Every structure is written in C-alpha cells, then in structure tokens.
Amino acid sequence: MPMTVEIFLPIICVGALALVFGALLGFSAKKFEVKDDPKISRVKELLPGVNCGNCGFPGCAAFAKSVVAGAASYKDCPAAGVEATKAIADLIGADADAANRKVAFLPCNGVDDNVVRNYLYDGPKSCVAASQLATGGNKSCRYSCIGLASCQNACPFDAIKMVGSIAEIDRAKCTGCGKCVAVCPKDILKIVPDKAKVRVLCHSMDTGKLVRKNCRAGCIGCRICQNACPENAITLTNNLASIDYEKCTQCLACVSKCPAKAIKAVP
Fold first, then answer.
1. So what's the pLDDT on residue 229?
2. Of 213, 193, 74, the residue nearest 142 (C-alpha)
3. What is the pTM of this model?
4. Same domain for 113 and 89?
5. What is the sign, positive or negative, of the torsion defined by CA atoms of 195, 197, 201, 204?
6. How far is CA 105 from CA 91, 134, 169, 178, in A?
7. CA–CA separation, 203 vs 210, rounded Å?
8. CA 42 to the chain's CA centroid
9. Looking at residue 218, what DSSP letter applies?
10. Residue 260 is part of a domain; what is its CATH number?
C-alpha cells in the first residue's frame, strides 16, 4: 500500500467517524431537547440583570425560572422597580385581578398630635435600636410606630415615606412584598387586601383607660364597633378591635360609631 494512503486513510476514517457521531449527537440533542418556557426569558428581560442574589437565588436567570415554575414569588426581587414587578405579575398571571392585590398597612395613629413624646431620642436612626430602650421608644404609647424609617429604608419600591414621626405608605407603589413587615421591631406593619378600605388605626393592646392616657386616637376596646357591625366582621382580642375582611362589606357602620375615631375608611 502506498505510504500516502497509509498516512491519510486513518485520518479519513477518524474524520468520517467524527462526522457520523457529530450528526448523531446533533440529532439526539434536537430530538430530546427540553425547551424552556418562553416566559422564563421574558421574565429575565424584565429583571434588572444585576445578579445581586438578594432574592435568594444565584442570579436573575435562576430567579426567573423559579418564578415561572411557582417556586418563588415575583415580588422577591428588591432591585426590580414597581413597573417591572407589575409587568412580571401580569406575565405570569399573578394578582392580575386588582381585587386580589395586597398592600402593606400601618395600623397606628401615633402622630405627634395624638401621642406625647416622653423624651428626645438622640441615637442611631434605627427603629430596632430605639426599641431596645426600656420604654421601647420615646412615645407615650409603647405600641406606637417609632418613626425612625427602618421600614422606609427596607422598602425596595420607594413606597414608604416618613410623615412627621410615623410611616406613610403609598398604596399605588406598594407591591405587598412584606420587607417592611420583617424589619419592624414593634410588629405593627401588616399585609392586607388593598380592597379592604375599612381599617383599625391602632395596634395597642392596653386597657381603654391607659390608651386614653397615651393616645388621643387609639382603640379603647369599647365594643361599640363590634355591636354595630351587621356582618359580625369585628371581634375584640386583647382590648383591640380587628376586622375579618372576608366578612366585611365596607358598610362603614363601625366608622361612624367609633367614639375614638380609631376606625377609618381609606380612600
């Protein structure tokens, strides 16, 4: 056999085998390809792409995949803006109905006109730090919002502003992610249905006499609202009225009857 043939024949054989195996691998990859849900790439495009890991996942791609699979909440990306979060919700069909939308709510009327400041606080601008003091804060009501903006700093959607000594929530911006709830040392902030317009603006579980002493607009536990509610949607627990939003028809009977004006209807 000529030397040229001896040299090139193995090369040709190996090349032919490579082509055959390559074709087989390509066919197998195409045949058994597992296609990703197109929503995953669309969710990823709506995310900021910083791969910060604050959502609990190694990157935006992994987070997007988990959101579409239902293993993670679309609200868990603190870097995404309000518009992006809403767009993702619409894309995956979450909370598409405004009736199911939830927002943060601060059940406290502890503004300076209603409560007394026991002393001037001069320390770290942190609700957690101030709550460590023996009085639990510098306001006469120990259940009141401390007002040092820990919730505002935790909100990734710029939905919380401090108005005087109390937090105010912009429901239009709020996504109900719950990050403000997690950082509040007084456990005041709650997540409620946005459609629930009747709210008890008090968190105090003191007796009525003590509430009157500490706050001009606190729930005094008189049961007038409970007795006035035609749907039995209001109960009194630990001297504090609470509303069952599954039963509440927003008739506003409790609002008009509350002698302390601790129950109000939000617009």
1. 97
2. 213
3. 0.70
4. no
5. negative
6. 26, 26, 7, 10
7. 13
8. 22
9. S
10. 3.30.70.20
